[in-house]
């Protein structure tokens, strides 16, 4: 059976109107992966996150509990990311990327490889619908004023758009594909920007984050990561059932 999904204009498509490098890619046929997060979010409406709460808290069989690394409230710590309040579709997409070896992290690959599709969707909804205060704060010595400038205005001298243009004016994410950045652990944010830069992370269909990360200096990455850690945590995603 072929499923049909309504596709709306994403922030990336809107951004392409102002950023020629993105416009060229958007004008080409977008790969199906570009809509994966939206599709996973639709599929997740058919699972009940309550059925996967024990899996998240305690694990099952060879599957480690999510809480053992990400914390009971999904806030993360150090280089382990916050999950609470990230969108369902984004979390599910990342789990699939780990399972398929598209995104590299040995611990996450071990766990994701053992999860069923429904377990990935259920865990994604479980954390998306979790409300938790921030436990993050600046710790990398970043210039907070520079971080704020990059978030709000970007820096067109180095061809970097405002982070808010895709991730929302509160950095709480937009739709399913553009994740919340607010209250994320700064060490994790910094590590991901570095991974986009050196190719260790490469699961963005349009290579958008690769281009931005390459343009940022190391000091800029620390500034952005520390500034994001000062922002209020995102609200929980509204339950769909």
UniProtKB/TrEMBL annotation:
Domain named Cytochrome c: which ranges?
A: 54-131, 142-232
Which keywords label this protein?
Answer: Heme, Iron, Metal-binding, Signal
- Indicate the secretion signal residues: 1-23
For this protein, the record's InterPro entries field holds: Cyt_c-like_dom, Cyt_c-like_dom_sf, Cytochrome_c_Oxidase_Subunit
Q: Does the keyword Oxidoreductase apply?
A: no
Is the keyword Translocase assigned to this protein? no
Task: Report the PROSITE patterns cross-referenced here.
Answer: CYTC
* SUPFAM superfamilies, per database record: Cytochrome c
In Swiss-Prot or TrEMBL terms, this protein is called C-type cytochrome
